[in-house]
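Please decode residue identities from the backbone states below.
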């Protein structure tokens, strides 16, 4: 179980990552490609697209592993039953899976 401090840190890191993505990648990319009146809505759409894509990709392994593990070996052996020190990004216990 994560502490409130760990959730807060994960939230701040995700927020900072979205800010950096917006200001350094999305805004320069669309600046000359869309009308000036459409920049804010285009930034909003692309930022949400990137954030949702990251959430889906990082949660894909949990979606694949958890249902099968629960029915095969029981809830005590699922990835959520204990915390591991796995260095892999695409597992259920990682710090950044759905921090908000």
């Amino acid at each position: 179980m994560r502490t409130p401090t760990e959730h807060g840190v994960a939230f701040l890191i995700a927020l900072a990552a979205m800010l950096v993505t917006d200001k350094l990648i999305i805004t320069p990319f669309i600046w000359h490609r869309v009308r000036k009146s459409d920049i804010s809505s285009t930034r909003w759409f692309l930022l949400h697209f990137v954030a949702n894509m990251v959430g889906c990709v990082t949660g894909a392994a949990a979606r694949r592993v958890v249902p099968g593990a629960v029915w095969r070996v029981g809830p005590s052996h699922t990835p959520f039953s204990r915390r591991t020190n796995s260095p892999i990004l695409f597992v259920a216990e990682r710090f950044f899976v759905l921090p908000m």
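Observation: Residues 4-77 form one domain.
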